[in-house]
Structures are given as C-alpha cells and as structure tokens.
Amino acid sequence: MMAWLDDPGTVIVLVGALVGMASTLVGTFLVLRGTSMLADAISHSIVFGIIVVWLVAHVQSGPLQIFGAALTGILTVFLTQALIHSKRVKQDAAIGLVFPLLFSIGVLLLNLYAGNVHIDTHTVLLGEIGFVWLDTVTLGGVDVPQALLAMGGMTLINALFVGLFFKELKLATFDEALARALGFAPGLLFYGLLFLTSGTAVAAFDAVGAVLFVAFVIVIPASAYLLTDSVMRMLGYGMVMSIAASVAGYALAVRWDVSIGGMMAVMTGIFLLLAFLIGPRHGVVAQVLVRRGQRGLNETRTLAVHLYNHEDSHAQQEENVVKALREHLHWSDGRARQVILRGLDQGYITQVGQMLNLTATGRALAMELLNAHERGR
C-alpha cells in the first residue's frame, strides 16, 4: 500500500517538491515586498539557533529544534530592522552585517561544544537530498522518511497561514499604511511570515541545505513574478515550477551522475531564465514584440500624416508616391514596402500604381494625430 515509500527516487523527488512548495508559499510575499534576501540571511543565521537549541535541550531535530532555530530568524530580522531604523546603514548593508555575525557565532559554538555531534556546516549549507530516504521513523508499522514528515508538515502549516491571511498578507504587502489603518497589524503578519520562513529553512536544511532552500524561496517566486501580475497565479505557477524543478532536477542528476540538490537548483535558474526570456508580459521576447508593434504603429501614423499633409496640394503627385517614402522619409525599400502593406491591411490607404491615397479611416487618423499635436503645444 505504501510501496512508493520504498522507492528512493520517489521519496527524493517528493521531498524536493515539498521544500519547493513550502518555500514558494512564504517566498512569494518576500519577493513582492522586496525583502527576499532576508530568506538568505535567515538560512545562514539559523546555524546559531540550531546549536543553541542543542546546547540547551540536546536535540538535533524535531519541533523544538524548528521552533528554537526559527526564533533565530526572527532575531536576525529584528537586528536588521534595528540597524535600518538607526538610519546609519541601508537594508542590504544591515543584512550583510547581521547574518554573517550570527552564522560565525554558530560555527564557533559548533566547533567548541558540539564537535562530536552530527551537526556540521557542510550539512547545513549543502545538505544531501540523495540520502533522505534512509533516515526514517516508524509510524503505524511503516517506515516514513523524517524529511518527508517535516516538509509535509511545514508545507501544510505555510498553506494554512497563507490561506487564512491571504487578503491581509496581500494588502500588507502592497499598501502597508492602509493595512495598518484597517487594523490588520502588518508588522505582526510580517514577523509571522518570517517565523515560518525560518521554520521552513530549519526543516529543509538537513535534507536539501541552505543553498537549495534559497533557490526555492527566492528564484522560483521571482520566476513566477515574471509570468503574472496576480498573486494567486504567482503562487500557483511557483508550485508548478517547484514540482517541475524537483522532477527534472532528479532525472537529469541521475542521467549525468551529478549532485541531485545542485541540479534541482540549476533547474530553478533555468526556469528563471525562461521566464525572463519568454514571459508573456515582462519577458524579453514579449518586450521586443511590443516595441516592434509600437514601431510599426508609429510608422503607419507617420505615413498617414505625410499623405494627409500633401493631399490635394500641387506636390501630391511628387510626395504621395512610393518613391517619396524612400527619398523624403528616408525609409529603405523593404521598410517602405512593409509600411505600405500594413497600411493597406489596416484600411488606412489605397494604392493605384505608385500613387498612395488615404481612405476615410486613414484621413480621420491623420486629423486626430495632428489635432492632438496642436493641443499638446
């Protein structure tokens, strides 16, 4: 019944997908707020929280470890905000001051007091998702990977938080002053979001490490942001890309015999590149097409105004001909041909031999443009 739990590949892909989905749920709002680098800071500074919890309670995993280390994330943000509010440093510098400090203290404590414990900085930073299926607990007679339970729980908690406070989170993200005026406590929501980000980072670090967590919490939401202007669709696209990055990353890692976590992170970067290039509104290709369409529209307008200015004048036979577009408007033969074809297709002009004439629609367009120009002077 639970045979799929015995398949290492299935477990690895599922853990990666859960890390991606849990990270996307919180990372989407961090990206929209412009505070996504706090996730990177949190993912490193939790080393301090992990070792402090071990020193106090002697536990390396479980809810207490997640809660204690998550508090370190809150401490990171609190110290960062304190530095920002001092007006001596900006946000990027404040982040760069706080998290290396906490991370360094955590590494020192780890070396001094926990040298014989299975907690090391390599595991925290890189993890090893390829071995998550080996670390199991028995539930109802079934061996279930701990990473699967931890990430499944965090995904559920994050989904409940976002689902319950979606409207409040969206309002606090885009208009904090209005959210405060309506009594939504945007500061409390923000710290709650960061607490869950810290908890997700702690739950993920043993399986995938901080590097892949950062890729999922920042790169995937940033990719989704390039695809849509809707927060709901952004969350949905992020979920889909998280699953796709896990599946494709695992398949390619097995095929090429490379790091599974590393290939999953590479896939998030590929999705970002694709979104940057072919995003429907903000992608490079879309922007090129928009600019090309705008240039074509401007050329058609130029042709209409040119023909209108010389219509019914003694120069009409000389100016309103194909040759004049090359000589007087300095258009190449190919460009002039394209503009004429566009004008014919759109019903702005007619052509008899070399002679170009405005239609009623083209004449109305030219008059509208000239009147608008006069009003703008």
TrEMBL record:
<dbReference type="InterPro" id="IPR001626">
    <property type="entry name" value="ABC_TroCD"/>
</dbReference>
<dbReference type="InterPro" id="IPR037294">
    <property type="entry name" value="ABC_BtuC-like"/>
</dbReference>
<feature type="transmembrane region" description="Helical">
    <location>
        <begin position="178"/>
        <end position="196"/>
    </location>
</feature>
<feature type="transmembrane region" description="Helical">
    <location>
        <begin position="93"/>
        <end position="114"/>
    </location>
</feature>
<comment type="similarity">
    <text>Belongs to the ABC-3 integral membrane protein family.</text>
</comment>
<feature type="transmembrane region" description="Helical">
    <location>
        <begin position="259"/>
        <end position="279"/>
    </location>
</feature>
<dbReference type="Pfam" id="PF00950">
    <property type="entry name" value="ABC-3"/>
</dbReference>
<keyword id="KW-1003">Cell membrane</keyword>
<protein>
    <submittedName>
        <fullName>Metal ABC transporter permease</fullName>
    </submittedName>
</protein>
<feature type="transmembrane region" description="Helical">
    <location>
        <begin position="63"/>
        <end position="84"/>
    </location>
</feature>
<feature type="transmembrane region" description="Helical">
    <location>
        <begin position="202"/>
        <end position="227"/>
    </location>
</feature>
<feature type="transmembrane region" description="Helical">
    <location>
        <begin position="147"/>
        <end position="166"/>
    </location>
</feature>
<feature type="transmembrane region" description="Helical">
    <location>
        <begin position="38"/>
        <end position="57"/>
    </location>
</feature>
<keyword id="KW-1133">Transmembrane helix</keyword>
<keyword id="KW-0812">Transmembrane</keyword>
<keyword id="KW-0472">Membrane</keyword>
<keyword id="KW-0813">Transport</keyword>
<feature type="transmembrane region" description="Helical">
    <location>
        <begin position="234"/>
        <end position="253"/>
    </location>
</feature>
<feature type="transmembrane region" description="Helical">
    <location>
        <begin position="12"/>
        <end position="31"/>
    </location>
</feature>
